[in-house]
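Recall that a protein's primary structure is simply its ordered list of amino acids. Everything else, from secondary elements to tertiary packing, is in principle encoded there. The following example makes that idea concrete.
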Amino acid sequence: MAILKCNELTKRYGSVCALDHISLTIEPGRIVGLLGPNGSGKTTLIKLANGLLTPSSGEILINGDKPGVESKKFISYLPDKTCIATWMTVKQLMDFYLDFYGDFDADAARQMLSRLGIDEKQRVRQMSKGTREKVQLILVMSRKAGLYLLDEPIGGVDPATRDYILNTIISNYNPEASVIISTHLIADVENVLDDVVFINGGQIVLTSSVDDIRENNGKSVDALFREVFKC
């Protein structure tokens, strides 16, 4: 069964069409880049998958079900903005995740925090922006989810932090699950991707495996992206 399936999915905000009758299938066990320029519909698609928005028409299915209570148990979601409570300590955040998600692996989270030298007693408000983003990512990736939705996980961070984030993603996700990484920073994520979905103006421009792009086009994903989306 497909992890995520869209059938003629459309989302409008008044007169603006953010997603325009897109059809898409994501299979289990794949790391997929949802790639497109800013304003292309990436975040709208991820929010629809996570049940934060409802379609204007068409449908989106998560593991065969419409987004709802069951899909929230199946999805681990990293929003494009840091949203963890700043008054909490890291320990309180982990306790919250343990209470809320039955698939949260506290030991895995502690190991990642330890490698970064982050004290569980530290409050979020005392952290730098980059450290907050790392903590939020650790919480998301410490779940044994079926689908990880990561919205711009490397946007606005320094190159060393990008490397850490990508290594954390590929080292800690459930291998039977799928990961969707939304980004416009193609060169930074290309080496961890199995498949890509190019999206622009609310429409799917291309879906392909990374291997097929390199074999059939003789170029990198980044080079093809620049060609497809050149101004």
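The beta strands are 4-13, 16-26, 31-35, 57-62, 75-78, 147-151, 178-183, 195-200, 203-209. The longest helix spans residues 159-172.
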